[in-house]
Amino acid sequence: MAKNVLICGVGGQGTVLAAKVLSQAAISNGERVLSAETIGMAQRGGSVVSHVRIGSDVFSPLVPKGQADLLIAFEAAEAVRNIDYLKTGGSVIVSKKIVQPVTASLSGKVFDEDEMIAYLQKKTSNVVAVDTDEACRELGSSKVVNMLLLGASCSSGLISKEELKQALKLLVKPEFYELNVRAVEYY
After folding, report:
1. How open is the CA angle 107-80-67, to the nearest 5 degrees?
2. For residues 108 and 145, is the Cβ–Cβ distance under 8 A?
3. In 10 A of CB 162, how many CB atoms?
4. Exposed, middle or buried, 43 (CB in 10 Å: 0-12/13-18/19+)?
5. How far apart are CA 56 and CA 59, in angstroms?
6. Alpha-carbon distance values, 43 to 7, 51, 137 (Å)
7. Hey, is 184 helix, strand or coil?
8. Model confidence pLDDT, tens digit, residues 88-123
9. Among residues 83, 86, 80, which one has the least CA distance to residue 104?
10. What does pTM read for this prediction?
11. How do strand 86-95 and strand 3-10 relate by DSSP bridges?
12. pLDDT averaged over the chain?
């Protein structure tokens, strides 16, 4: 049975590394993985979406709409934008942080985190909203949001923290390993 994960955010938040860590954890566990990224204008703060599909019965790297078991969103508006990928009963792990798009700022409109989270909760009862700003302050680095959210996603049962830590050993520089492990274990 396939396990489908959609990871979304904006350019520079670490979504691609999160997808690589999740994929490596599954591969190290002997599972077949297909993944793909849609990065478009990510360099300029645009949307980034990574698809990770795990299982022997997976033949395409793209998660079909309505089939994601797990949606990991580095930004609340991106979670709302991609909620159609989540299957009925799926889980959402979302950062409470809002990255105001330039278009919203120019028009005087403001994206509201509480409004976004409430919308997600109407779509599924399995929403974990993570205060990544507070966690990053406590951890002493703003560069571990990706590992905070992956660690929080372990509550879905899709992957274990031990598997993530083993993947981190293979993928991050040794000097950043301990910080990333602390982020995975934070939740």
Report:
1. 150
2. no
3. 11
4. exposed
5. 8
6. 17, 19, 25
7. helix
8. 999 999 999 877 665 555 666 777 888 999 999 999
9. 80
10. 0.91
11. unpaired
12. 90
